[in-house]
Amino acid sequence: MRPAHELTPWLDGRGGVAHTTTLRSAGFTTHGIRAALSDGAVRWARRSWLAATDADPMLVRAASLGARLTCLTAARRHGLWVPEHDEVHLAVSPSSSRLSPDGCRVHWGIAPEPVALGALVDPIVNVLCHVAACVPLVDALCVWESALRKGAIPAGMLGAVPWRGNARRIAAEASSLSDSGLETRFVRLVSPLGVPVRQQVWIDGHPVDALVGERLVTQLDGFAHHRASDRRRDLRADARLTLLGYTVLRFDYAQILFHPDEVVATVSLALAQQRHLVAAR
Question: What single string gives the DSSP state of each residue in the chain?
Answer without folding.
Answer: -B-GGGHHHHHHTTTTEEEHHHHHHTTB-HHHHHHHHHHTSEEEEETTEEEETT--HHHHHHHHTT-EE-HHHHHHHTT-------SEEEE--TTS-----TTEEEE-SPPSS---TT--B--HHHHHHHHHHHS-HHHHHHHHHHHHHTTSS-HHHHHHS---THHHHHHHH--S--SSHHHHHHHHHHGGGSS-EEEEEEETTEEEEEEETTTEEEEEE-TT---HHHHHHHHHHHHHHHHTT-EEEEEEHHHHHH-HHHHHHHHHHHHHTTTTSPPP-
